[in-house]
Amino acid sequence: MTNSTVLHSDTILSYNGISAPTKHPHDEQIIHDSDNEKSSDYKEDSIKNIDVDQHQLQPTSTDFATLRKVSDNVPVLTCVLIVLVEAAERFAYYGAKAPIHNYIQQPMPTDSVTGSTVHPGETAGALGLGQQAATGLGDFYTFWCYFTPLIGAIFGDTYGRYRTVWVSTGLYITGLIILTLTSIPPSLATGKAGPLAGLIVFQIISGLGTGGIKSQISVILAEQTNSSAAYVRTESTGERVIVDPNVTVQRLMNWFYWSINVGSLAFVVTPNVEKYHSFWLSYLVPTIVFLFIPVVLLILRHRLKRLPPRSSVILEAFRVMRLASFTGWRKGSSDASKWDVAKPTYYEQRQIAKPKAITWDDTFVYEVRRALKACTVFLGFIPFYIAGNQKDNSSSLSATMRQDGTPNDLLTVINPIFILAFIPFLDLVLYPFLRSRGIKFGPIARMTTGFFTSVLGLAYLACIQWYVYKISPCGHFATECTKADEKADLSLWVLAPVYALSAMGESFAAITAYEYTLTKAPVKMKSFITAIFLLQNAFGSAISIAFLPVSKDPYMIWLYGGTAIGYFVVVVVFYLAFRKLDKDNDVDNAVGKEDKRVN
Q1: CB count in 10 Å sphere of residue 481
Q2: What's the half-sphere exposure (Cβ side, CA atoms, 13 Å) at 20?
Q3: Structurally, how many domains does the chain consist of?
Q4: What are the CA-CA distances from residue 402 to residues 102, 120, 407, 481 (Å)?
C-alpha cells in the first residue's frame, strides 16, 4: 500500500514558496459508528471498482492545464438518504416558518377561531401584534437558527457528527410539538400570552435542533467521497480525464442545496393550510414530515463513512493562530513566514525545543491558515443575508396588493421552484460546458455573480414598493389598508422576479460557499468552518433587527433602495479584494490532501 500525494512536488512548491507538507497523523483513520462497527459495503483504504492499471495517480501540471475535470463516483443510495434528511429538516423549518409572519402580524379574521380566513379577501392571522413584532421575531428566529450551528459544530467535531444529528433531531421534534399544541383553538381562545410563549419556546428549542443538523449534514455528505485527491482516469472512450475531488464536492453541494429547496416546497403546503383550515394543522404537517428523519438515520447507521472525532482539534486550531499571532507577527516577517513558528519543523530545523502546545504537524498549520482565509471571504455573505431578510419582509408588501385568492405568503415558493430548475442547469449544462472549454469560473467569481443578482432583486423590490405607495388608497401607509377593496390595484405576482433573482443569487453564491467550506477546512474541523459560514446569516439577521425602526411605512422604499445601493458597493469591494484567490484555488485546495489506494 502506498500513500500518493496527488500534485507533483513542483506544483506544491509553487504554493507561496513552501515545500510539500506531510499529512496530519490523525486524518486517515475512518470509523463507521460510535461503537466502531464496520459498514458491510465499505473497507478502509480501498475504493470499489478501481482498476489501478488504468489510473495515473499523479496528474502533472500539463494534465491540469489540458485535461477535462470530472467528478468521482459516490455511493448513490447513501448520498440520497443523507440529502433526504436535509430535505425533511428543511421542510420542517420552512413549513413551520412560512405561516409564522401572518400568525404574529395579522389579527384573528372575523368569525374565525383557528386563524384561517372565513370571508373573501382576508389574510390569515392570530396574534395581531403588527409588522414590527412579526419582523423582529422572524429575524430573531433566523439569527438563532444560524448562530446555533456554531454550538452544533463544536459538539459534532468533538463527539461525532452522527450522534449530534440524533440529539438535535430530538430537540427539533420537541419544539414542533410545542408549537402545534399552543396554536390549537382552545389555546388561541385564552389570549395572546400562551400562544406567543409557545412560539418563542419553539423558536429556541427548534433553533438548537436546526443548528445541530445544519452544521453536520453537508459535511457527512462530503465525507462519502471515494477520494480526497485528484487522479487521472481513462474513460471507456479513451479520453483521459482528471477526477477532481473539488468537482465532486461541487456536484454534491449542488444536489445538497437542491434537496434544501425540495424541503422549501413546504411553502406551497402550509400557507394554504393556514389560510383555509388552521394554523395548528399548518404546524402539524411539518412535524409529521420531520418524523421520517429518525427512520432514515437508523438506515444510515451502518452505511456512513465517518471520521472519528477529536476533542482537541478546535483547541489546536486556536493554538496555531495564537502562536502565529503573538510570536510570528512580532517578528515583522512576511505573511507566509508568520505561520512558520506554529510548525514543528520550524523548531526541528533550528534544533531548539518545541513548545509543548504543538501537538500537530506542518500540514495542519497550512489547513488552519487556508481556513482562516475562507472565513475572511465569508464576511461578504453578511450583506447577502441582509438582502435576503429584506426579501422575506416582502410578504408584508404583498399583503397590501391585490391577491385574487392567492395567499400572500405563497409567493415565496417561487424561490425554491426556480432553484430546483436552475441547479440542474448549472450542474449538467453550464459548469461542464465551461470546464470542457477550459474556462475557469472560480468560487470567488461565482459568489460575486450571486451577490450581484441579489442586488438586482432588491433594487426591483424597491421599485415595486414605490409604485404601491403611489397607487394605494392609503398612500405611504399601505399596510393600514387591510380590507380587500382598499388594497393596491396591483397583482402580488409582480413580485415574482424578486424571488427568481434571489434564487439565482443563492444558486451561485450560497452553494459555492458550502463547497468553499468543505475544500478549505481542516479535515476534523469541517463542521466548525461550516458553522462559521452559517454564522454570517446570523450576523445578517442581527443587523436586520437594527433596521426594525424603519421596517414600516412610510420608510420601506428607503430600506430596500438604501440596502441595494450599499450592497452593490460591497460586491465591488468583495471582488476586488478576493479575485486573486481564484487563481491559486486548485493548488491551495491540494495542501494536506492525500489519497490511499491499493497498488
Answers
A1: 17
A2: 14
A3: 2
A4: 17, 12, 10, 11
